[in-house]
Structures are given as C-alpha cells and as structure tokens.
Specification:
The complex is a heterodimer. Chain A is α+β, with helices and mostly antiparallel strands. Chain A is built from four helices and two strands. By secondary structure, chain B is an alpha/beta fold. Chain B has a five-stranded parallel β-sheet with strand order 3-2-1-11-22. Chain B is globular, with a radius of gyration of 22 Å. The chains are: A alpha+beta, B alpha/beta. At the A-B interface, helix 1, helix 2, helix 3, helix 4 and strand 1 of A face loops of B.
C-alpha cells in the first residue's frame, strides 16, 4: 500500500520538481469557486431555494449563481424539488447521495 | 506504421467513411483532434425532418468504429505534416498528452469527482461546468478521462483517487509517423462565433461576473444541448437564472448571408434546425410560445417543406424581418425588428433568444495537404459537378461540411461517395 501511495504521488511531484507550476489565475479561480460553492451550500442549509432567491441572499449576479447551481446539480451536489412560477427550488443532496 | 487509408476527422463523415473502407477490407487510421470521436452530431438533440434521436444514430456508429478490426482510432491527435512520395503519403501525427494512460483508464470518473477546479464544459458549450480532469461526455469513444493541465492546480487528488494508477502527469506530446496510400479529409466546420454579431449581445462566457451581456441569449448548439436527452440540466431551463422559458425566439441568419461579417453564404441548415428546435421546445413546454425571425425560409430538402408547414400549423410564429438588435429588459432579451410583411417596428420580449448561427469553414489543413480552398475557406474539388469528393492531389478525397455547409444525410452520402472513390483509387494504385 505504501509503495502504491508513493507511486501515486510520483508523477505530479516529479512534474512540480521539473519546475512546472499551476498558473496563479487557476489557483485564484479555484479559491473563488470554492467560496461561491460554500456560500450556495450554506444558503441551502436553511431550506430549498430557487436560483434567484439564492442570488439575492448571497448578493451575487443571478447568472453566475445559475451556472454554479446547475453545475452542482450535474455533480450530484444539489437536486431540484418543487417548481413555483417556472423556478425550481434546489436542495442539498445528503453526502453519499450524489451521482 | 502502415495503413491503407488515413481518415482525418472523427465526426459523422469520418466515421462513415472509415466504416465503409473497413468493411471493404482496408486498414484505416481515423485521427480525431478531440478526446472522443462523434463530432458535432453527437451533441445534437434530434435530426430534421424525421426528429430521430441524433445520439441513437451516432452512438452505434461510434461503437462500430471503435470495435472494427480494420479501423484504428487515434484520438486527441492532430495531423502536422503530409508528404507525398510516389504512391504513398508520409504523415506525421501529433498525439497530444491526455495525462491519463488510455490502456489503464476505465472511465470510472473518480478523478473527476475529486478534482477541485471547474471549467466551462466544451461539450455543452459552457452552459455548465466540468472539472479540470474529466470524461468528455457520457457516450465518449474512447470513454477515457483527459486532464486539462492548463486549468489544473496540480494538487494530485486525481492521481491519488484513480483506482488504476492511470493518471500520468509526465506524459509528453508524441509524434507518430505513418505511411498511407490515400487520405480522406472530413474535418467538418467551425460554428460562427455569435459574439462577432455585436448587435445581438451574446455573452460567450457564462462564468464572467462583470458582464452587461445577457446569458439568456444563447446560440443554437447550446439550445441543442438544452433539448438533448443527454442535456446537462434536469429540465429545459434558461441558463441565466434557471427559469423554465415560456417564450422563446430564434433569430435566423446569425452570421450567415451577412456581408458585414464576411460571410454572404447561406449555411443551409439553420432554417430547418431552428424549425426542429421550435417543435422540440413546444413539445417539452406545451404552454410555451415559440417565434422564428427569418429573412426567407429555405426548406429545400426531402421532406423539409412538409416539416416546416407542419410546425407552422402547430402554432409556431414566423415573423419576416432581419433582426436589428437584441436588448435586455429585466433580464429578458428584447428583439427589435422591422416586420417586413406589415412594415411595423416590433419590440418583442422573450424569456430566451436562440441565435441560429451559421457554419464556417475549417481550412486549417489546406496548406499541409496542399489542396485548394475557395475564398471562404471550404475545400474545392477540381470539378464540383463531375467529382465533388476529389481534390487536385491524387489520393486525397474530401467529405462532409469540409467542402461546404450541408445537412447530415448529404454528409453521410458524401462520406460513402468519398470512400467508394478511395476504394477505386486504391485498386488502381495497388494495395
């Protein structure tokens, strides 16, 4: 097992050792993405909400929130519930219940 | 490595030509620049005018190509050099690094689950995200992950999660030299980039936070993804806020028949795919209202006129006029147009507007192959009428939308014609 772990870490570490580093923009982007997903998840802990309701609550453009919520749906992190006036309410999927 | 034929392009034309040649007993190498074969057709919802499922037609052909004993796939690879020596072509193909060992990857997607970076997903034209390491799409052939090093944090989570030790950050581009007797070029088309039509306010990147553009103005391939059985969302929703769109408009000739954008050509498919999308939309949202803004409806193919008439009779509105611009009101797109049948200037508000974008040429291999293109970049045969699949180079044939915009039946027929011509040529030069 230890040997397998060592082998698994080898290629990414070797590439880093060669001086290849991730781009700064990617690291910043990933941080921003984590923050947005956390905000959406925290917001949904209080109960199911539509995309505009989430956007209003976390004070973020609705187009951006839509992209993240629908991507979270793709990865099984949220699921749609009832539809009201053309908008679905989304709720968090319990851990282990994703796709 | 030696093959009888090199087929360049793994869309429906390239797959069809490869299968025809393989069935005739020739060794075929099919080279595709993307990580999977399937081309544009695998992204479509249904085909017109029959409304048959596009994926149901394409997927078996993709699988047949992958399992055919005479057809060899080389995906995520690009042709870089072609030299004709006597009766043979010496070809250099660049195999791009996937950073995933193809023979080890089982397509389980564990790497994708743990990856922390989101990137607009190419297969869905950005309306949803993918990870930096990802399976291109559910029906991908080969169904192998690919790691996008440009967007990778190099955290190593994917490598630790892979149950088959398939992730390999040390992969390098590999140049492969092959020899073939003939080549079929099936490199397809490029979609007109709708952001070039500034008046229509299309936003190319839905993840941009600071934008004045309206994410509810999408292009036709994005609409195909929204309508497809393999769609990224759980229902037909508009990308801007997840609303079920109750009013949708299509704007024809976006980037076609437009001299101001350098493309005066008709793209030949936009009228019919828009009519098809309007039908599929009203089937998905029975109370939905669909309108098509057009200059002329060109329903020239077999069954097209009947299809158009049926959709019009089902209640889709057809408004004649070239749309001047699209603005936004309360998040909704507003189409501004002169109705040329009444002379009225209209301002029509919709939940979503679909830009029916045209087909542009993809001439990037013309210099490498030494074959001619017309002023629009489409490959031109020396005699368009007598032999539309030939080129000025003996042994190189063309098929599909590489020569001009065309629909799927014409593309498939032309691919079979190119394969037949190729077989005749191979018999002539001796195999």
């Amino acid at each position: 097992m230890a040997e397998k772990q060592a082998k698994k870490e080898l290629t990414v570490k070797k590439l880093r050792d060669k001086g290849v580093k991730p781009r700064e923009e990617v690291i910043e982007m990933a941080k921003e993405q984590r923050k947005i997903i956390k905000q959406i998840s925290e917001c949904l802990k209080a109960g199911p909400k539509t995309i505009p309701e989430i956007a209003f609550e976390i004070n973020m453009p609705v187009g951006i929130v839509a992209w993240y919520v629908l991507t979270m749906f793709k990865y099984g992190q949220v699921e749609p519930g009832e539809e009201i006036d053309g908008y679905y309410k989304y709720k968090l999927v319990a851990k282990g219940g994703g796709k | 490595m030696k093959y009888d034929v090199l087929v360049i392009g793994g869309g429906i034309a390239g797959i069809e030509a490869s299968l025809t040649l393989g069935d005739a007993g020739f060794e075929v190498l099919l080279v595709e620049k993307d990580p999977s074969i399937g081309g544009h057709m695998i992204q479509l919802s249904k085909v017109f005018p029959t409304t048959d499922c596009a994926g149901c037609i394409t997927t078996p052909k993709m699988a047949a190509a992958a399992s055919h004993p005479k057809v060899h796939l080389m995906t995520y690879s690009e042709v870089k050099e072609v030299q004709k020596t006597g009766k043979e072509f010496r070809v250099k193909v660049l195999k791009k690094p996937r950073y995933v060992e193809e023979d080890l990857c089982i397509g389980c997607g564990r790497c994708e689950e743990v990856c922390p970076v989101l990137v607009p997903r190419e297969f869905d034209y950005g309306i949803v995200g993918r990870k930096a390491v990802y399976i291109p799409f559910e029906m991908a052939v080969p169904k192998k992950a690919v790691l996008d090093l440009e967007h990778c944090m190099m955290c190593g989570r994917c490598e630790r999660a892979c149950p088959k030790d398939a992730i390999n950050f040390l992969q390098e581009p590999e140049e492969v030299e092959i020899t073939v007797k003939a080549i079929i070029v099936a490199t397809g088309y490029n979609l007109f980039p709708p952001e070039r039509k500034k008046e229509y306010s299309y936003t190319g990147n839905l993840t941009l936070i600071h934008t004045n553009l309206n994410p509810n103005i999408i292009h036709a391939m994005q609409m195909e993804r929204l309508l497809a059985p393999s769609r990224p969302y759980h229902a037909l929703l508009r990308p801007g806020d997840g609303k079920v769109p109750e009013r949708v408009a299509w704007v024809l000739c976006t980037g076609s028949r437009d001299k101001s954008l350098g493309n005066p050509l008709c793209s030949r498919v936009c009228c019919m795919y828009s009519v098809k999308q309007a039908l599929l939309y009203t089937s998905a949202i029975p109370f939905g209202e669909a309108a098509i803004y057009y200059m002329d409806i060109r329903a020239f193919g077999k069954g097209f006129e009947e299809f158009y008439t049926m959709v019009r009779d089902l209640g889709v509105y057809f408004i004649r006029g070239k749309v001047a611009r699209i603005e936004s009101r309360n998040g909704n797109p507003v189409v501004i147009v002169e109705d040329t049948e009444t002379g009225e200037i209209r301002e029509d508000e919709y939940d979503m507007v679909v830009l029916s974008v045209g087909l542009l040429s993809n001439p990037e291999l013309s210099e490498i192959l030494g074959i001619d293109t017309n002023s629009y970049g489409f490959y031109v045969p020396p005699d368009e009428n007598a032999n539309p699949v030939a080129t000025k180079v003996d042994g190189i044939f063309v098929a599909g939308t590489a020569t001009c915009p065309k629909d799927i039946p014409d593309t498939v027929a032309e691919a079979a014609a190119a394969a037949a011509q190729c077989i005749a040529y191979l018999k002539e030069v001796g195999t």
